Input
Amino acid sequence: MTAVEPSPSLEILVREQNGFSIWTGPPFEKGEPATKLLNVACKSAVFSEDGSRLMVIKPEGGVSVFDCKTYKEIKSIHVPELLGASLSPRGTYVQTFQKASVPQEKNVNLWKVDTAVSVYSLSLKHMSKSTWPAISFSSDETVACRLATNEVQYFDPSDFSKGFVSRLRVPGVAAVQLSKLPSSHIATYVPESKGLPASIQIYAYGSDASNQPLARRSFFRCSTVQFYWNYGSTGLLAVAQSDVDKTNQSYYGESKLNYLTTDGAHEGLVPLRKDGPIHDVQWSNSGLEFAVVYGCLCLAGFGNLPGDMTFWDCKAKKLLGTAKAEWSVTYEWSPNGCYFMTASTAPRRQVDNGMRIFHHNGALLFQKTFDKLFQADWKPESADRFGEIAELGESIASLKIEDAKSQGQGSKSSKGAPKATSVNPPQKPAAYRPPHAKQAAVAKVELFGGLPSQELSKNALKNKKKREKQREKKAEGSSADS
Output
């Protein structure tokens, strides 16, 4: 019998003013995380996609790469006038962008981490979401490509000295994204031009210029596109965003969700129940289903919003619990899906910095405040390295959600305000509520449970009046009989 490999332990990166530290993740032995690495000076830090290496930008300039098994430095690369850096998915390469001293200077370098040698360089005027990193890798680093004028150039990741080894001609192409695993396809976006609609195409990797796209979707009113490949590289979600909403329903423009499959079986819009902006899209690890948050509703949120959260069992479609994480800036599930971490970080928030870790059912496990917290991240691990978590449902009853604390964290003004009841109805007329706000209240009831306070008051008053009338009729009837 083959030995079952134990699941990896969870780890957390925490970055404060004086540098970053590595903590052990839950479950905690004494209710607190232990420190594996303490206060390494840096300006920023990021894990590779597979969690094997950690890239750190130093305060004095330059980049260091650490081995995440030992947290010892592998190599340090000095780059003057460094403006940005990116680590390849498996930590084999570091890509740096520095300020150009003369026009057309090759200010982007691709460094082999193990040797700290530049293996490729190119010129880039500006960093943006569509142009950085300048060289993109597939998750397994078997494919590398870069966006050039009217084409996509492919490289051999094992030997960049060859230059690009093939190209894909796509006139007007403005953005590309390689599929995850397997690295078999690439998505391209061409904006509107001269009356022609914008378009999204899917090509098989290695296709030459004469090949036709495997799938294509065209549309007008599009400024930018965000790609979301599924795990398995069979489906692509593309959020098309325009700066202006011609229906005037959203201040933030108009967005549409498109779905394309690599076999060309589906090329169209994802049908949504209502209009409104698309806030987030995420694929499940199986690659067979996805979730969309959309609509002109504000049920809960982070930042300056209350931060109400609900936790669901996706298979059973069952509500597991609720929690609150006000002022949060970042949020992330642990790699094993057992814990959820939120953080209130600078520079977005200069006060009340801190982090919280919740169980999968919303029960608060750990929280800590900081004078200044800049980053809190789980170390990435493949979900395949963890077992099934179905048995976690059996322990839900034994975990107690700290309702008292969450209820006691309301605003000061709400604590002293009298509650409206059927005996003490509000004296002032109710404020105007637009139709979409009423719909939001109904949707909030569906998600969080309970009844809207205003509806409860109206119904209670109506029932009270009915009961009073019934009593009056009974009293009149009894007096007539006597």
About this structure: Helices lie at 403-407, 412-416, 435-448, 453-481.
